[in-house]
Amino acid sequence: MCTRRRRMSRGGSSLRGADEALRRALDDVRARCDVEARKAADPVHFVHRYARRDDQEIVAMIASSLAFGNVKALCAKIEDALARLGPRVAEIADDPAAVRARLAGFRHRVYRDEDLAGLVIGTRAVQRAHGSLGQALTDKLAASGNLREALGAWVREIRERGELGAGAGGRRGAEHILPDPSKGSAVKRILLLVRWMARPADGVDLGLWDVPTSRLIIPVDTHIHKLSRNLGLTERTSADFRAAEEITAALARLDPEDPVKYDFSLCHMGMLQTCPSKRDPEACEGCGVKPVCRHWRRDARRRS
Ligand code: SF4
Q: Could you give the CA distance from residue 36 to residue 24 in angstroms, rounded to a whole number?
């Protein structure tokens, strides 16, 4: 088949046949996603409860940072933390002693009360210093030109201003609650926070930060990693930062301006589908990406 026939038109651009099939499948997954139902099961819904931007930024930081482990359990912990801090989170966050008192005794997996308090206090201090948490990231992105480096500087400033981990003796919770992206991990929860705040308001994401969507990197959890390997978006066996970059680059072939737009629907499909990562007619029944999954692709080609 000649190159011209293999390529299919998409607006002013063109995609290879395989990419076009992938785009169709992922667009279909997005279209079929029950956004309201899935949002209710996603920690982003906590951010939508607040009207003020300063509260939304701190709540988003809390919700994304605690998004670790079983969804039901982590949502209960976020609920607990927010109830302790009250309806005006930013106002309380101006008073470090009050934050520490209200969060006293809080625990979630490896995180202790002082870890969450340091995160809240540091986030508020960065808001105060830069005008907003988003402006702080925009400033650092303008200075470095690289999202990973900008996030590294941004995280370090929040940690320093909140004295996060000071005196913790390298305890895991203090490191893990807001990890440094320069250390190689996928920093899934930080990239999730940035997606929530920077992607245009679409009922899930909030469109509050001035970070170009073309610069975002997909947050890679176990679902996205597994599905991405099955879709050939990455071969990496480790869900690290390089895997996130590879997956994002592959999605950018489908939409260079907003590659991360597929994250929410794909992640939630992965949560519901229980992907076996092998050809399993029962488990794969109804999977939205089955036509482009490497375990089924030969069948789809034979039928077409
Ligand atoms: S078709 Fe099956 S193996 Fe492939 S991604 Fe879907 S659930 Fe996983």
A: 22
